[in-house]
Amino acid sequence: MSYTFDTPSQPVLLDSVSIKPDVILLLDTFFHILIFHGETIAQWRKAGYQEQEGYENFKELLETPVTDAQDLLVDRFPLPRYIVCDQGGSQARFLLSKLNPSTTHLSTGMYDGAGAGEGAAIFTDDVSLQVFMEHLKRLAVGASAS
Hints:
The chain is of the alpha+beta class. The protein has helices at residues 39-47, 56-74, 93-96, 129-145; strands at residues 2-3, 24-28, 32-37, 81-86. The termini are far apart.
């Protein structure tokens, strides 16, 4: 789930383009429930804006994924590990390991430059699902032609 100021919470792709500085992500795997704060959100939270007057919207934005995570934890057995992390933090590895690396340090964007700058680059040697499917199609077509 993705939480932002602009839109109500909504499901997003499990992809690197979903990581943005002004977004909070909630990931529920069987073993982990993770709340991920984008870079800007993390800086504002560390600065304590949620405690200041006039930032009630920000406080509500921070509390919503926590409430949703607690709702998920209530009925779960075995109890999953609950993780709250920030972009660039060491605990973010739990999210980054699950994402499709459509934007990496080697790519310019998911669709040949369109959308470049969206999402966070993931430093990996793995190929994205799109690249994998293209290679699979090429192999399938090449195998039937020979």
